[in-house]
UniProtKB/TrEMBL annotation:
GO terms for cellular component: Golgi apparatus; membrane. One of its GO terms (biological process) is UDP catabolic process. Residues 593-634, 674-705 are annotated as: Disordered. This is Nucleoside diphosphatase. Belongs to the GDA1/CD39 NTPase family.
Length: 705
């Protein structure tokens, strides 16, 4: 594995799917030459602008046609990722497709079919690391999306690695996180210490790991509101607007959240002319009325079982805006900056200036706005659709931020209604009142887009760092309880303990053996090599082991007693030595005849031709199965028998006494091991025990030694 690790995250949102590719150093490389500050920091994640690609529409539109989601939709994003990630790193690069609110609105059957087709397509068309589809390809809860976003925002702002530079008072150094998409909205923040103790059961515990293996832990409150994104809020608003019409025959419905004079269908499509066969919306450009009519969508009157509550009766710890400073992304950025250009000049959110600019824009005649679009007065990214949606979105954001969450309306009393941006003035006044940057919309921090996908990668990358202690708790998210709670979410299935993948990074064994920082590196290498040698020894086969044994004996017996070497090696290593005692006992005592099935016999002439034994001839014979004749007149010899006991099949002996033997033959493991004998003209045929005087290939006279 190279020094770089990669991660591919697909954000399958309600309006489109975007692939994000991230990169970081593997832990071994990250530690080399790192300063003490860097060792106490989280892994450094990097990305590039062209590593991100987005397609439309949302993946949820493939409900009813899931077989098309791969080739007709995801293939473009998959090929983009394969173009970025080096080929050698693909197999070690995890791929995640995490769907959000758009998929949450589908039925269980539709969701399951789309996710199943997605997993099959990824596995069939790439070699990205995808060990478990249920973990890597899933619809994540809104709370998880909010927690990932909270990680991303604080990671980019530096509050994890340099808490002393972000001290907000009361021992608090992190930022709150706000996100709003098309279908849902999320909030995540760390309450002050008093609220943490009071609402411990309402919090989530998040654990991260630094480069040196030490941990960071945070207790976070997070919640999500489904149908509170801008698209779903707009749908609920139009339904309420239609119900407010007293007479069903009325076709023209006044709409204060549309620019004056703009006519659209109920579902928001512009009407090109006066002809219309059904109900339609007519914009009146009354932004103050728009705010009043969108306020009920917050559902602030819903019963609150546990005070305090935010939106829709959802309980939350009290937000201390002295220390809780919020970062808003997605629609909080696009709606406040794309048309009103606050991203280029302002450093903080100024409620009064923003509301005045929205009011001035939405009260214009639609014809004047169209003229401004053609002149690109609000930039090339602003089109007709964004222009007539921005008034509703702005009113909804203002209500959510200030009436729902309760963010202070900084500057509303101190600055006059003008186009002047009073950011600097209101921030100074905010400091006097104890409010410092209560809310700021952002898109990028240090040239990196703030996306919850980054938070997912930070969590995954830190989980790949080996813990500094053996009993350290794992990286992940769970209930605010000691140890590992039942609902603990691991960053990847590879990290789940118990049966299945072990909690280790894929190259941890390599780093443990060969990594420079491991104190057990040399013993580990030696142990590893010893295991390899033992395994290869037993795999090489009995004959090869026997040859190796004899070669070692030849080396050992030079200049020493062969008998002592045999006593040293033979009896103690029965799987390679010779068991002479068993055979000598048979020779001396006699025993039953042993039959060797399926063995050919030599002719009597061949036996007679080979009836004379010479020691020099025996030494030339192969151990693989050559035979040597043994004369009945020869002096008695002691023989050794290797790897065969007295009851083994394949041992044929019909002796009358130790001096009168008819012969011995050993059946080898295969017929290919039988080779011609040293006698000229003889055939390579196995000898019958009842007719041969040749000795077994496994026998050697002691006198030869």
């Amino acid at each position: 594995m190279g020094k770089w690790r990669y991660g591919v995250i697909l954000d399958a949102g309600s309006s489109g799917t975007r692939v994000h590719i991230y990169r970081w150093l593997n832990n071994s490389k990250a530690r080399q030459g790192a300063s003490p500050q860097e060792l106490k920091s989280l892994p450094k994640i990097t990305t590039k602008q062209d590593w991100t690609k987005k397609i439309h529409p949302g993946i949820s539109t493939f409900a009813g046609k899931p077989e098309e989601v791969g080739p007709d939709y995801l293939d473009e994003l998959l090929q983009h990722a394969l173009d970025i990630v080096p080929e050698t790193a693909v197999k070690d690069t995890p791929v995640f497709l995490l769907a959000t609110a758009g998929m949450r609105l589908l039925s269980d059957a539709d969701r399951s079919q789309i996710l199943s087709q997605t997993c099959s397509f990824f596995r069939a068309n790439s070699k990205f690391l995808l060990p478990d589809c249920d973990v890597h390809i899933q619809v994540i809860p809104g709370e998880t999306e909010g927690l990932y976003g909270w990680i991303a925002a604080n990671y980019l702002l530096g509050s994890f690695d340099s808490p002393e530079d972000h001290a907000h008072g009361k021992n608090h150094h992190t930022y709150g996180f706000l996100d709003m998409g098309g279908a849902s909205a999320q909030i995540a923040f760390v309450p002050n210490s008093t609220e943490v103790e009071k609402h411990a059961n309402d919090l989530k515990l998040m654990r991260l790991r630094n480069v040196d293996g030490s941990s960071q832990e945070y207790q976070i409150f997070v919640t999500s509101w489904l149908e509170f994104g801008v698209r779903e809020a707009r749908r609920r608003y139009i339904e309420a607007l239609q119900e407010s019409v007293s007479f069903p025959e009325v076709t023209e419905i006044p709409e204060p959240c549309l620019p004056n004079g703009l006519r659209t269908t109920i579902d928001g499509q512009p009407l090109p002319d006066e002809t219309n066969s059904g109900s339609y919306l007519l914009g009146t450009g009354r932004f103050d009325e728009c705010i009043r009519q969108t306020y009920p969508l917050l559902d602030k009157d819903a019963p609150c079982a546990d005070e305090p509550c935010l939106l829709h009766g959802v309980h939350a710890p009290a937000i201390d805006f002295d220390v809780n400073h919020f970062i808003g992304i997605s629609e909080y950025w696009h709606t406040t900056h794309e048309i009103f250009e606050m991203g280029y000049k302002d450093k903080a959110y100024d409620f009064n200036t923003y509301q005045h600019r929205v009011d001035a824009f939405c009260s214009q005649e639609w014809a004047a706005i169209e003229q401004g679009l053609s002149e690109e007065r609000w930039g090339s990214k602003v089109n007709r659709e964004k222009a007539f949606e921005v008034c509703f979105k702005a009113s909804w954001l203002i209500n959510v931020l200030h009436s729902g969450i309760g963010i202070p309306r900084v500057g509303i009393e101190e600055t006059e209604s003008s186009s002047h941006n009073g950011t600097k003035e209101v921030l100074q006044h905010g400091k006097d009142k104890g409010y410092v940057h209560p809310f700021q919309a952002v898109n990028k921090i240090d040239s990196t887009e703030v996306s919850w996908t980054l938070g997912k990668v930070v969590l995954y990358a830190s989980s790949q760092v080996p813990a500094i202690e053996e009993d350290a708790l794992p990286v992940g998210i769970g209930s605010n309880e000691p140890g590992i709670p039942p609902d603990f979410q691991y960053p990847s299935v590879e990290l789940v303990p118990g049966p299945g993948p072990l909690v280790e990074e894929s190259d941890s064994w390599h780093e443990s053996l060969f990594g420079g920082e491991s104190p057990r590196r040399i013993p580990g290498v030696l142990l590893f090599l010893l295991i390899v040698i033992i395994v290869l020894f037993f795999l090489c086969g009995r004959n090869r082991r026997l040859r190796m044994y004899h070669r070692l004996r030849t080396l050992f017996k030079r200049g020493d007693s062969s008998r002592s070497r045999r006593r040293l090696l033979g009896p103690k290593l029965p799987f390679i030595g010779r068991s002479s005692a068993a055979y000598e006992r048979v020779l001396e005592d006699g025993g039953p005849d042993f039959e060797l099935s399926g063995v050919d016999t030599d002719s009597d002439d061949d036996v007679q031709n080979r009836s004379t034994y010479s020691p020099s001839q025996s030494k030339r014979h192969s151990l693989k199965g050559s035979t040597t004749g043994l004369s009945s007149q020869a002096p008695p010899f002691k023989f050794e028998l290797g790897n065969i006991s007295s009851t083994s099949i394949g041992l044929g002996i019909a002796p009358s006494n130790a001096l009168d033997r008819q012969g011995l033959v050993i059946r080898t493991e295969s017929r290919e091991h039988l080779v011609p004998t040293a006698t000229t003209g003889s055939r390579s045929r196995t000898v019958s025990p009842t007719r041969s005087y040749r000795k077994s290939p496994m026998l050697r006279p002691v006198s030869d030694e």
